[in-house]
Amino acid sequence: MVKVASGLVFVCMLLVTSVVYSQSNVKIERFRDLVTYLETHTQFKFAYPEKLANVTLTVNEGVNLNDPKHLQQWLAPYGIEVVRKGNLLIFRKRNKATKKITGFVRDAESGESLVGANVIDLASGKGVAANTFGFFSLDTSGDSIAVSFVGYTYNKLSIKNAGGELLIALPKEESVLEEVLISGNDIRELPEISTIRLSPDKIKKIPVFMGETDILKTLQLLPGVQAASEGTAGFQVRGGGPDQNLILLDGVPVYNANHLFGFFSVFNADAINSVELIKGGFPARYGGRLSSIVDIQMKEGNLHEIEGEGAIGLVASRVTVNGPIKKGKTSFMLSARRTYIDALTVPFAKLADSERIMGASFWDLNAKVNHILSPRDRIYLSFYSGKDRLYDDYSIDEVDMKEDEYAEIKWGNVTSAFRWNHKYTDQLFSNLTATYTRYQFELDRKVHYQYSDDTPDISRNNQYHSNISDVGLKMDFDYFLNNDHLIKFGANVVYHTLRPGVSNFRSHIQADTTFGSPEINLGEMYIYAEDEVTLSRTTRANIGVHYSAARAGSKTYTSWQPRFTINQRLGHALSVKASYARMAQYIHLLVNSGIGLPTDLWVPSTERVKPQLSDQVALGVSSVYKHFEISVEGYYKWMDNLIEYKDGAGFLDIDSEWENKVEFGSGKSYGAELFIQKKSGRSTGWIAYTWSKSTREFDNLNFGKSFPYRYDRRHNVSIVYNLAINDRIDFGAVWVYNTGNAVTLPTSTYPKATWNSNEPGYEDFVKHYPGRNSSRMKDYHRLDLSISFKKAKRWGERKWVFGVYNTYNRLNPMYIELDDEDRLNKKFRQLAIFPVIPHISYQFKF
What we know:
Layout: H1 2-17, H2 31-41, E1 45-47, H3 68-75, E2 80-85, E3 88-93, E4 99-107, E5 118-121, E6 127-129, E7 135-140, E8 144-148, E9 155-158, E10 166-170, E11 195-198, H4 200-204, H5 215-219, E12 225-227, E13 235-237, E14 245-249, E15 252-253, E16 258-259, E17 264-265, E18 272-278, E19 292-298, E20 307-312, E21 316-326, E22 330-339, H6 341-351, E23 356-374, E24 377-397, E25 401-423, E26 428-451, E27 458-482, E28 485-507, E29 510-516, E30 520-536, E31 539-552, E32 555-569, E33 574-585, E34 587-590, E35 601-604, E36 612-625, E37 628-645, E38 662-678, E39 683-698, E40 707-708, E41 715-724, E42 729-738, E43 742-743, E44 748-754, E45 763-768, E46 775-776, E47 780-793, E48 796-805, E49 815-819, E50 827-831, E51 837-845
Parallel strand pairs: 1-3, 4-10, 14-19
Antiparallel strand pairs: 2-3, 4-7, 5-6, 5-8, 8-9, 11-18, 12-13, 14-15, 16-17, 18-19, 20-21, 20-51, 21-22, 22-23, 23-24, 24-25, 25-26, 26-27, 27-28, 28-29, 28-30, 30-31, 31-32, 32-33, 33-36, 34-35, 36-37, 37-38, 38-39, 39-40, 39-41, 41-42, 42-47, 43-46, 44-45, 47-48, 48-51, 49-50
């Protein structure tokens, strides 16, 4: 870590020293320096009040200090007015009073909120960002403002005669083929680090597995984010576990984000409005997880007209419709998706008269209603439900016996939220949210033996289920004190109900037997306050504190979590950022496998199992060069009170106390990330590189020695490229490279004893393991390609998408096993399940 940190410091120093500005060899930092310059370099006479002498100034590139008009424009944001009378320049403080401007920023076509849109006072150069619901409050001393949002037309608006609340409707850019460059002076740089925002339009352009647009797979292509394994939607962030990611859908936690064992995620991109990933520098308003926040907002619905879109693919189809219930007042959004893998595979198995019929399917549904009660009040009702089903029907009919076996696994999520926005004053905005979420997993296995003689039939039925559900209520406030202070504060209460795992066994000779963990309840709450503050024209910060508590049995856990992020601009296009965040997590995930199996169990903190804790520091440098955004970040994270299954333990162990199956330990991770991104123009995309290391340490695992985490990968590279060939044809490519997963493999075997068996020389072998996760799979890499053809139709637009997953047929290992067939020459065998896979889909929009 010392080497990584020193490297980052060197990069920072190099970039800082490369930014040099000179105005005729005169260094101007205060108003009195400007006076000195004017005295020695111009013929003007001037007058000014003494109180201006120590006003701090920053000379921008291109400012001509010899031109009074340039001086007027340059000094206006500092509240200094320049009056010219012949050869005399009079400098004075502007007396014009400021006024408060409030309103909402929305999409001109649909009325959707534009989350995070920049609203700038052109007189002072200061600005604010619209909140989650598009609301902003701005102090302005001028007659015009600028509004900008990525992918939308940059607008300058006159507010000279504006009254009441503004509704700013931004139209989308007419053509993405034109290069668009917005002046950095009109962009409000947020005090944040390790934060990336993605739009659904950007996500849909990226080649994906089986042609199914997937938000979580797109996140895996970002620096600091790793896929769990081949083809899966699960992910890990900066050395953390899958349970340490807080995934929010309209503010509601989603506990299992995977369809079909992780091959797809539960999020339908057609139903999504915005996606935000936070990996570090967490604002105080978030809590409950250690590694990341994925904040996903669903579409609100078009307030003006009916519109829709959908797709028909090889494995699934989807359709989304939204529009007004009452124009300009109430809107809806409805989206549905279903796979038909079972409809394709099962008939073929039946035609072949196969003894085994296997099938898999999933469906999901998103719905939302948005209603404007009044200019000050708005309500939203959102809902999600999804279900997966995997089954195996096996039957064999022999002369003396008939065997029937049926096994089925089902799992799914339900989330719902009611939101009420209220504007109390021009400065105070609130959002009340009531939430419900549930994740449930069920396993059912039935076996029946029927004999031809007088032997009684034998039947057995094993059932297993686990679930977690939450009921929550939270209140969030945004207080726009002025352009220098945006204060957020609020509180949240949530009640968890968990059933870590219950088994039921029934047979023809035995009554129902039930064993497993009883239902557990956990109450959790938090309060927070944060201030997004402008410390100077070049320094912004987010300073806050998050306090949380949880009641586990007779024990109450509490945690004070300070947070801060600071952003220091060093010139027109360079910023240095730093952050610290402490996080606490009161629920845990017991992981059986790394491929997104739904058998992973959610368990709470108890009197014995303490909450997980983490501390993370991050340092970064970001810059803008022409159309490229470049950032370099380093981080270090400490984690305590982590849990892992004991060696040999699993979710089906017959033990009523899950706490007896786990060990407690700590972990740490550190690394460096490079992100180069191009957002506009004919070609867009990014390059992401991560160097990282993640370890774990448990007293009773690996002899108490530190060992690599299962997802410890030293190098991760992602290259994403999109090209708009013309108005009708788009091309996309993705190349990824990862160091192989850490795995536990034996390095040698030796005979333990000779058995008294019918086979002379038959021996029992003992495997020698040098350490936990001490071996590595082969490195992972693949190339995905896609090309799409759009065509305008009378009813809208249609698009054909052709793609190839794993273009050069790299057989990346899913897992490795030991081949025991040859007892004297044992070999490892890798399983790869995804060769080159072509795909095609038909998409439409109306």
